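3.2 Worked example (two chains)
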Amino acid sequence: MDQNLEIRGKVCVTGASGYLASWLIKRLLLSGYHVIGTVRNPENEKLAFLWQLEGAKERLKLMKADLMEEGSFDDAIVGCEGVFHTASPVVGPNSDPKVEILDPAIKGTLNVLRSCKKSPCLERVVLTSSSAAIRARDDFDSQIPLDESSWSSIELCESLKIWYALSKTLAEKAAWVFANENKIDLVTILPTFIIGPSLPVDLCSTACDVLGLLKGDSEKFSWHGRMGYVHIDDVALIHILVYEDRSANGRYLCCSTVLENYELASLLSKRYPSLPIPKRFMPLLKDRAYYNYNTSKVESLGFNFRSIEEMFDDCVASLKEQGRL
């Protein structure tokens, strides 16, 4: 262990085995925090990668918790000064979207916050929301970049069956109501599409889409259309930044670059000529509104985003190291 490392307080990270959560835990451990990670089954062999993180053997503890069980986060959160709630369903629904996506996102968030309310030493909660809670609307001015004041339209999400965006929007709105009513210091992070190295053994749906794109599967990425991109390490660092900076408040949009999928494909095919990057995509929606993001709020805290090239360089290197490319 680094003898000069400043040992910090105890924090909880929900959904510890996830793509972003595992990277956040890596960064928290490197920063000297004691981390309680919640998972469905602490004995799962696929969690071995977490114990290989620097500082894990000394300052990581995994505890069982379930989003749909009220009170199941109590033991993990009690005694923690901070909570990072990242756990949320991402995969597309196979049958009932309410059961598979909406309930776990909304009820799970409220279950975590109820446990936070019971912890006397809690200082701040950082909730991972999504830019999907901002951009799914049809009444914005394409000349004005979207920022933290924007909210996705619940009616539009329901009519188009955009269940992920709906779950993130409703869960974040519910979190703000609960936090305000119960005087919980809440900050929310709204990342765009996250790119970068994957620590878990199994790739999440996000990482699978990127792998599909790099292997020439245009269908895998066609639905993305215009999209913002951000490095996974930047998102993890911003979580810690807004937790530690007591001037931070409200929502924080995290995005480095916004591109159409054909612009991304062009950039990637030139950068990685040996990979079969698709040259064309079928448009998802005709006359899709142009949009951009205003990230000045998080930049005002002194944060600078990594480039689209750097995030994909790190992603490609990781996939090659894992033998996937």
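3.2.1 Second chain
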Amino acid sequence: MLAVFDKSVAKSPEALQSPHTGSASAMKDGFLAKHFGSVHPGSVTVNLGSAGSIAYSLDRQNPLLPRLFAAVDDIFCLFQGHIENVALLKQRYGLNKTSNEVTIVIEAYRTLRDRGPYPADQVVRDLEGKFAFILYDSSTKNVFLAADADGSVPFFWGTDTEGHLVLSDDSEIVQKGCGKSFAPFPKGIKILK
């Protein structure tokens, strides 16, 4: 999975920002999304306009940590891994039997956004399993990111030469877009505005 967000939508942490030269802007002409597509045949890229882009592929996925994608009401979500308490969460959020992990994350986010005052970290703590996800809400221009408390799913983030935030489960993809300005994603939650 891959996401590239403009700095006006998601500011990258200062620790990931360093002056580096030689690598191209991850967003310019869809550079990093095109590279992702060349490395992962059959990938799908969603252009989010000036906010950035997201891409995913089922190529070379770990069968124990599957990748899922969904878009509901201008909310786009990439999910990798699995949630163990799916039945409980379906009941909590009033979802039907066919709902899966990615739709649960979207509904949990919508509950957080619309019905608060649920703390964001509580929403993520309620998810039991091994996972990482990237959610972009185009109506509010919010980015909601999380990884399980054990960091079970490979997940990296970085900053390209123009300050765009790059996220992926593939460290080589992040390095291609960010040079040395990348690191493993910290365990837990991050909401970027």
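3.3 Remarks
DSSP finds five helices and eleven strands in the chain.
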